[in-house]
Amino acid sequence: MEPRGLMGGFYRISEWIMRLSVINVLWLICSIPFVFIAFTGLLMAPEGGTEQDLLGQLYQTMWLLAIVAPFTLFPATSAMFTIARKWVMGETDAPLFKTYFRGYKENYLQSMIGGIVYTVLFVIMILDFQFFREQLAILSYLFIALLLLLVVSMFNFFSMVVHYHMKTFQLLKNAILITIGKPFRSFSTAIMAIAVMFLSTRFTFLIPFFMGSIIAYLSFWNFHLIYQKLQDQAEKARQAEEEEAEEFAELTNSDSGKDNK
Questions:
Q1: Confidence (pLDDT) at 45
Q2: CA-only gyration radius of the chain, Å
């Protein structure tokens, strides 16, 4: 029996700390190649080197990360969103390991294909940002905004992968359309993700235990609000169509009754 009162509150908090930390650790373990390259890239940064040396090391690390991300980071993240979906929809007692690895297996192919598409888009955006930063600085801010939108659409893509049964390119298209069509939600998702990442740089223990799982939970929570609103709109439209059909049927019946007279 779950304790009540103050002890019950501590118990629920400790439960959520355990859930978030377990999923975050599983996410990192299943993304080991990506994490290893990112970590070693930071360690191997030349001390006292020129800016050109640092940029060279950074670009080399980024290319390696781009190669491994679709096959490791993206499937691991979709599995984490599988758990986040369960939590947001009220299934807080879902078995963590079983649900995570089932989501990893079921969504691996779509996550990998989506990961390849998003990685290519990110590479293009970053290269364009670098080019325009040197040629026309004001346009670089536009690419920063586009990069943020791309990140939010990626979160929406993960949410849709675990929530819908669609073809991969339909998911990609709808993720982008939702991101553009719901600017307030997109902005709030970006702000929440940035806030979590900022806090993680200040309190580094958040990175291995909470950063990814908190962002996944908040992102799916925001996506689910969009989903519910779209469902409500579709239901209202359906009801309006049914009412119009009933009115038309009544008018048709009354007209036919007059003709019979």
A1: 61
A2: 24
Q: H helices then E strands: how many in the chain?
A: 11, 0
Structure-block tokens of residue 47? 């001390």
> How far is it, in rounded angstroms, from Cα 18 to Cα 21?
5
- Identify the sign of the CA torsion 39, 144, 186, 158: negative
Residue 247: pLDDT band with limits 50, 70, 90: confident
Residue 46 DSSP class: P
pLDDT at 50: 64
Residue 151 burial (CB count, 10 A): 19
- Per DSSP, helices labelled H in 31-93 are 32-43, 51-68, 73-88
> What is the rounded distance in angstroms from the CA atom of residue 66 to the CA atom of residue 76?
15
117/161 Cα distance (integer angstroms) = 14
Per-residue pLDDT band for 47 (boundaries 50, 70, 90) equals low
Cα 188–39–70 angle (5° rounding)?
A: 60
Return the structure tokens found at 243. Answer: 């009412």
Locate tokens 């939108």: which residue? 149
